[in-house]
Amino acid sequence: MSDADIAVVGGGIIGCLVAHEITRRDPRPRVALLDRDVVASGASRRSAGLHFPRGATERVRRLSTHSQAAYARLAAEDPTLPIHPLPLHMLAADPAHIERTYLTTARPTRAEQVPGGLVAVPPGTGVWTGQGCQYADVGALTEALATTLRPRLALREATRVTSVEPGPRDVTLHLSTGGTLTASRVVLAPGPWLADPAWEPLVRPLGARVKKIVALHVDRAPTEDDGVIVFEDEDAFLLPLRHRGHWLFSYTCQEWDVDPDTLDRGLSAADLTQAHACLSRYAPALAERTTSGRVFCDAYSPTCEPIVRTLDDGGRVVFAGAAGGSGYRLAPALAAETADLLHIAPEGTGHPDQPGPTGRRTAA
């Protein structure tokens, strides 16, 4: 007999929401959640935590819609969760880009300028306001989820999986503690640790890669009225982190194939130069106030869409991730797709072959 019905490997926001979705749909399976460190100590700890209703593809738009509703439900159930609504402002040269990218629920509306005078709008660039934006302290949110999950599953922190061996009846996980754990099915939610030897042969065919992510901290306190400012043409944004007392500027770094275990997490001169050049085009006064930040990495798929897929012939090992910097934004929907692949019936249907919340059939 297996030790667990389902083992989830990875205690970040995706892994914890996968465990949450499984136990919410059906409390009967024995679920184990394992992390190599403590919950929320990896990419989730360093996440900007921004959610806004947009998507470049039809699937991502569905994922965004589902996740927006799921986060609203979580916040309504527990108002103490660190999920904070924000005003949304978008800058773009092409109005059609806004129309293509943002969901109708965002209600993009033309505006003359960005309130507060922080940003100068370049000639030929339009400004829009939108709805449905929020940000979270993702580390704190993940820890809160883990707290609610503890009575419903076996949580094993500082327990590294050293090998994953799919078999005809179950999957054997060899652990750093010297023991093993067998499970009928396993979910791998490793964040940027794609190359971990325990599962690298299984994950390699996905073609996902790991990219460095850099964000600068702007030494200026946000006000209660400040909102996120998205620079669509730069793939960058300014986010008011009210709970930390500063702004965060996230821009696109193009340093690929980094290793989360060896990545230098300090800002480099090149990081500062690239970020300052981007931010100075819109807010030179803020660029002068950026001397610190955060550095980590995330996994990206070849299609720039997140991956939820079985990895073995028997369908016992499922991968969930490679969300390309949108792990928090899309995590609830990725958890729902994962539960679908595990044949956990959507809540209220009782039938595992019914379409799940994101449109996929649970018997895929």
TrEMBL record:
FAD dependent oxidoreductase domain segment(s)? 5-341
- Report which superkingdom the organism of origin falls in: Bacteria
Region Disordered: what ranges?
345-364
Cite a GO CC annotation.
cytoplasm
Q: Which InterPro entries match?
A: FAD-dep_OxRdtase, FAD/NAD-bd_sf
- Note the SUPFAM superfamilies from the entry: FAD/NAD(P)-binding domain (SSF51905)
Residue stretches in coiled coil = none
Show the PANTHER family listed in the entry.
SARCOSINE DEHYDROGENASE-RELATED (PTHR13847)
Q: What's this protein's name? A: FAD dependent oxidoreductase
